[in-house]
Amino acid sequence: MNSKTKFICGVTSALFTAAMFTAPAMAKPNPNQSAWENANPNAKFLRCGTEDLTESQMQAAEDQFRKFSALKGKPTKPGGGNGGGGGDGGGDPVVRPAGSVSIDVYFHVIRDDNGNGGNTQGEVDAQMQVIENAYSGGSGGVPTPFTFNLVETTYTNNSAWYSASQGSAAEQQMKTALRVGGPETLNIYSYNVGGGLLGWATFPSSYASNPDYDGVVILNSSVPGGTSAPYNEGDTGTHEVGHWLGLYHTFQGGCNGGGDQVSDTAAERSPAYGCPVGRDTCRKGGEPDPIYNFMDYTDDSCMFKFTPGQAARADLQSFTYRE
Q1: pLDDT value of position 95
Q2: b/e map of 206-222 (b: 16 or more CB within 10 Å)?
Q3: Full-model pTM
Q4: Can you point out the beta strands (E) in 73-173?
Q5: Using one digit for the tens of pLDDT, what is the confidence trace for 90-136?
Q6: Which residue segments constitute the domains of the chain, with CATH numbers given?
Q7: Annotated catalytic, 268?
Q8: Helix count and strand count (H, E) for the chain
Q9: Closest by alpha carbon to 203, among 52, 97, 78?
Q10: Cβ neighbours for 303, distance < 8 A, ≥ 6 positions apart
Q11: Residue from 55, 240, 268, 287 carrying the catalytic annotation
Q12: Distance between CA atoms of 283 and 273, rounded to whole angstroms?
């Protein structure tokens, strides 16, 4: 991965590319407070603040996705020909070949006014390597179409942004000032996230309604070698990029309904913490909860894979909304 580093002090302007489709605004993301009730002692942090949709919100989002996907069509493999695969993949092959979709990444390190609290370039590079390894299948899951090109690392000293809470004016100001590119460009913001959260992200379908807000936020101490054990191996970044590509939590919807809209991830009543081998909250007759999946809440050392269905869904979501 090639990258360059830039120090930013103050506000910069960015040019945004309009999305092909206009998506209805989602409800303001809220942390899943019920996760605390299901947590084990490892749950020092509520892993993710990305919104868990209600059944009606899920239905609306999926109806919209099917409509827009039908209008745009499916991505083609190199050399022509339809890639095949359904909306959730259902275990089908990935629509496009592994590593064939390169995503440019801008990594924004926020520090306080005195320059304290940020990540080093080495930590940024290590975080990007974890993400690359997860999406290439190097950690043990299936390979996905995505590879990540770190274009630039920016450093900004701003105490208000350094402690910006989810959905706050400070977060909106930070992203409006720093964000680079259009819907196809991944912007990651790393700082001292509060509220017990490790991070959050936006879904592809919400880009058109608020392009400035698009991107991934991670706790700066969740990077490899950070201090937020057991969440300090970089998989908060992996998890949040999954949302950015269109994946829900594995426990979305609990044991009923459409769940996470992927047929090869087992239903799960609630988030899993630690690494509870054999956990089966929906009593699926021997099919355990997907505790090893990047889109659950388990310790970084426990999660290591995406499924074929997740890879296919992320590809179609990304193609529909981000290309």
Answers
A1: 80
A2: bbbeebbbbbbbbbbbb
A3: 0.83
A4: 101-111, 146-157
A5: 445 568 999 999 999 999 999 999 999 999 999 999 999 999 999 99
A6: 4-9+42-60+86-322 (3.40.390.10)
A7: no
A8: 7, 6
A9: 52
A10: 235, 238, 239, 291, 292, 293, 294, 296
A11: 240
A12: 18
